[in-house]
Design a protein that fits this description.
Elements: H1 2-32, E1 35-41, E2 56-61, E3 66-72, E4 77-83, H2 111-114, E5 119-126, E6 140-145, E7 150-156, E8 161-167, E9 175-182, E10 185-193, E11 207-213, E12 216-221, E13 231-234, E14 237-238
Length: 239
């Protein structure tokens, strides 16, 4: 009887120890939630006498987020930032707030974001002519971010389109803004706001389209908007 009595008290203790061992990694992941940076460097020589120059195309994505295609040149460096997901420890690149990403895709980092709203796509098209007889060509640099997510710097050329994909977070507070630099001009404004009610929101549309021109920034909703759908919503400023 004494031996049975001892086994009765040891069994609950064993169960507790095993349970703690199983839960420990998950608790550690949830408490850490560290920020991560993935950096990609193009070291392919472009001055190759054997064959013509070829750009390096890089396309990064996570389960729910597409950062779009990057056209990289020799010695060019690109990176994206994100947080490790709270529950699973799996990384993502979607971008939403709070605890967003890439992000673009945007990076998706919070447990709340993972179970929340619809997918969205922000598309940016460069319509600035590069063959300008008045002045030498100037590249368009675009840098988009959310509160916690940095999609990196894009160098765009005429008629090139770039886009990032993400999900609206559980609280519908997802917001992205971008800085645009073109020669001596710049602009810095919001390109997506889940709470926007000022006439150019995408709450009921999946696609949010921006066209960059010499006289400003034009917006239209929908996957295939017509030229007449675009309305100017932003202007260049002098540096």
């Amino acid at each position: 009887m004494m031996m049975c009595s001892r086994s009765f008290f040891i069994l609950p203790l064993t169960i507790i120890i095993i349970s703690c061992a199983i839960l420990a990694p998950h608790l550690q992941t949830a408490s850490a939630n560290p920020k991560k940076v993935v950096r990609i460097l193009d070291s392919i020589p472009t001055n190759n006498p054997v064959q013509p120059m070829k750009p390096l195309l890089v396309h990064c994505k996570s389960k729910d987020t597409d950062l779009g295609v990057w056209a990289m040149n020799e010695n060019e460096e690109r990176e994206f930032h994100f947080r490790v997901q709270l529950c699973s420890g799996v990384t993502s690149t979607g971008a939403s707030r709070p605890e967003a990403s890439s992000y673009s895709t945007p990076k998706k980092a919070s447990a709340g974001t993972a179970i929340a709203g619809p997918k969205k796509v922000v598309r940016i098209t460069d319509l600035i002519p590069t063959h300008n007889p008045v002045q030498p060509p100037k590249v368009l640099n675009v840098h988009c971010k959310s509160k916690d997510d940095d999609l990196g710097l894009w160098t765009m050329t005429e008629n090139q389109s770039r886009e990032f994909h993400f999900r609206v977070n559980y609280w519908w507070t997802t917001l992205f803004w971008c800085r645009f630099d073109w020669g001596t001009k710049f602009a810095n404004f919001v390109v997506f706001d889940a709470n926007s009610r000022d006439g150019y929101d995408c709450r009921r549309e999946r696609y949010c389209n921006w066209r960059v021109k010499t006289d400003g920034f034009y917006f239209a909703k929908g996957e295939f908007p017509k030229d007449s759908d675009f309305v100017r919503k932003g202007y260049w400023m002098d540096k």
